[in-house]
Design goal:
Helices cover 32% and strands 23% of the residues. It is an alpha+beta fold. Helix 10 packs antiparallel against helix 11. The longest helix has 25 residues. The two termini are 35 Å apart.
Length: 439
């Protein structure tokens, strides 16, 4: 996959293929100075400005008809401070490169999401997360930020310096400025033992609290039209390293999860009636496996089958009831869903617009194969999620607006007031931000 999803003749497209934009011009700055100059120039020309990452958002959060900033030259590690346990990295650095570079230095992030194609700034600005009992999203691991604000000022912030900006800008939606560098907390590299095991839907939901409490990182996938799930438990381990064998790894991750899955989705798209049968076969094809490796090799996996996704964060204590409602809705409906539903958790954090802000959280993600109509399924799912005061992932499909967010985020007004101060002329606005933050 190329570093940025894009199209011909000046059209920018996202990875999921569901968003396109035609910017007036594109800029690829090679330094923070060039970036500030591009922001000032845009202001003179009366154009809006947006930075894009790798286009992994399914919303139009990065779309603009103004100046599109591409960050691929703003990459690399600026500084490693072993004493403080931090690494400072340029905003356009892909997570994949950061993970590999840290491992070479004997370091690791504490927790991460399940794909690493995104840039560090794109991933954090939208609230990307993995699963964790005690460890939270990638943004919650930020210790410092550098961002260029609307008037071209370079602002540094941490919990000591500009703490009000720091509270909001870690998940800033691109609304407060353009992030140019991020300082993450890191720790000496460690080993995780992953245990993957099929389990019935009823058993997982009945013992969800125990599974969550007993494991540092617990998640599961439920296959619609079946009573089956695949559970994943990742816990720290003293070793030794026992990676997935190359052939077995290729067979299970590339062939089964990506190759066969792609074909199954093609069949399902052509013949929706076949989907329940395919789901039964897929869910039964899973066998338990255990392996031990360094964190990024356990947390992340390749995603080659393209899809569109909606994900909502609900209070952790509401997750089982929410899931049972979702299952009942799918079972009663004529919907045919070929993608598993993913369930993860995060502890409460202190970031203004984090989906886990101020509450222990569980995430439920629904996916549809790229090119299949997803509206009916997502609308039904969203109705259930919002009934539980769900907060949608900022980078995934949803229909919520500022009025809704003011109700589910106690600190929503704090964020919009900061935006009024940092970007009074709405230099960083686009249609998506107008909808979710108000104008």
């Amino acid at each position: 996959m190329s570093s940025t999803a894009s199209g011909k003749n000046g059209t920018w497209r996202n990875w999921g293929g569901n968003v396109a934009a035609r910017p007036a011009r594109e800029v690829t700055p090679a330094s923070v100075e060039e970036l500030t100059e591009a922001v000032r120039q845009a202001a003179q020309d009366g154009l809006k400005v947006k930075a894009v990452g790798t286009g992994h958002s399914f919303t139009s959060i990065a779309a603009t008809d103004g100046v599109l900033i591409r960050p691929q030259l703003l990459t690399g590690i600026r500084n490693i401070d072993r004493e403080a346990g931090t690494v400072t990295v340029e905003a356009g650095t892909p997570l994949k490169r950061l993970n590999v570079a840290l491992a070479r230095e004997g370091l690791s992030l504490t927790n991460m999401g399940d794909i690493m194609e995104q840039t560090v700034s794109g991933a954090t600005s939208t609230g990307t997360h993995g699963t964790g009992r005690d460890s939270a999203s990638i943004a919650a691991q930020i210790r410092g930020l550098e961002l260029v604000t609307a008037d071209g000022t370079v602002l540094t912030c941490s919990d000591k310096e500009n703490p009000d900006v720091f509270a909001a800008a870690r998940i800033g939606l691109g609304a407060l400025g353009i992030v140019t560098a991020i300082t993450f907390a890191v720790e000496p590299v460690f080993l995780l033992t992953a245990r993957e095991e099929p389990m019935t839907f009823d058993r997982v939901t009945n013992s969800f609290d125990e599974l969550w409490a007993e494991n540092e990182h617990f998640e599961f996938y439920w296959f619609p039209h079946t009573g089956s799930t695949n559970t994943k438990r990742n816990n720290r381990s003293a070793g030794p390293e026992r990676p997935v064998g190359q052939l077995k790894g290729w067979f299970e991750d590339e062939f089964l999860s990506n190759g066969v899955f792609q074909v199954a989705n093609w069949v399902g798209r052509a013949v929706p009636a076949a989907i329940p049968t395919i789901a039964q076969i897929s869910s039964k094809a899973l066998s338990p496996r255990t392996y031990t490796d360094i964190p990024y090799k356990v947390f992340t996996s390749p995603r080659r089958v393209r899809f569109v996704e909606m994900e909502y964060a609900v209070p952790r204590e509401a997750v089982v009831e929410t899931l049972r409602e979702l299952k009942a809705t799918v079972d009663r409906s004529r919907l045919r869903i070929s993608f598993p539903v993913e369930v993860r958790t995060a502890p409460a954090d202190d970031i203004t617009l984090s989906t886990a802000s101020g509450r222990d959280t569980a995430y439920i993600a629904v996916h549809m194969f790229q090119g299949t109509p997803y509206q009916a399924y997502f609308t039904a799912a969203e109705r259930i999620f919002t009934a539980h005061e769900g907060r949608p992932h900022w980078g995934k499909v949803h229909t919520r607006d500022a009025e809704y967010f003011a109700g589910v985020y106690p600190r929503f007004g704090e964020f919009t007031a900061l935006r009024d101060r940092l970007d009074p002329e709405r230099r960083f606005q686009n249609d998506y931000l107008r909808r979710v933050l108000g104008s």
